[in-house]
Amino acid sequence: MPRLEDHCWSCSCASRDETKHSSGANWLASKAEEMMSIITSVLSNAYGSLHDVRTANLIRRGLVLFTVGAFLALVLNLLQVQRNVTLFPEEVMTTLFSSAWWIPPCCGTGAAVVGLLYPCLDSHLGEPHKFKREWASVMRCIAVFVGINHASVKLDCNQVQLSLTLAALSLGLWWTFDRSRSGFGLGITTAILATVFTQLLVYNGVYQYTSPDFLYVRSWLPCIFFSGGVTVGNIGRQLAMVKFATIYNMCFYN
């Protein structure tokens, strides 16, 4: 029969083993909890930094798009005023460079909205736009857009022929520099909304078009808005690529 001393010794050894195993498990649990706390803190800080970077880049992109839209509106509107396509009251003609002061801010705001919507819609549809994604292509797109506007006041033909010509040029601009469903859809939406807004302005006597043939405006105006939407969208997409490069550098090289 086992002696009492052997039984006591075996109990004490088992107790010490259980104590060691329990302390080891507690140590591992505390270390795991500490590591989880560190990881959570790092992820939280990274998310906060990423959110701040995204917000700052969104503001910067909006300001750049607003400036580009306001500048293009000012230049192109001056061209139409000089060619006697758009008429303003005499008191308005004495303001900002013989143009209405409110046109550049309105067009700048529209350019910022459209330019920010293009990359957002690409992301939402899961169709990243990869066709001709470089600044040289964007600059050529701007040049073609300015050329289409110049053609609207320079071509000497009837309104139907001019409208069809500008429609073909606008679709050619989309096909050459965009070719995306989101770009085409947003371009059409921009053309419709901007044309309706312009019709309301002309109807309320803010300004007028000479020889209107599409209610109160020229029939080629939607083509100008469509090509402008595609152009601003390409600028917005290119600026979004700059944003992702900035985030990447901050996350991996700082």
Automatic annotation (TrEMBL):
One of its GO terms (molecular function) is lipid binding. It is a multi-pass membrane protein. It is found in: Endoplasmic reticulum membrane. One of its GO terms (cellular component) is SREBP-SCAP-Insig complex. The chain crosses the membrane at residues 63-81, 101-121, 184-203, 215-235. One of its GO terms (biological process) is SREBP signaling pathway. Mediates feedback control of cholesterol synthesis. PANTHER family: INSULIN-INDUCED GENE 1, INSULIN-INDUCED GENE 1 PROTEIN. Belongs to the INSIG family. This is Insulin-induced gene protein. The gene is insig1.
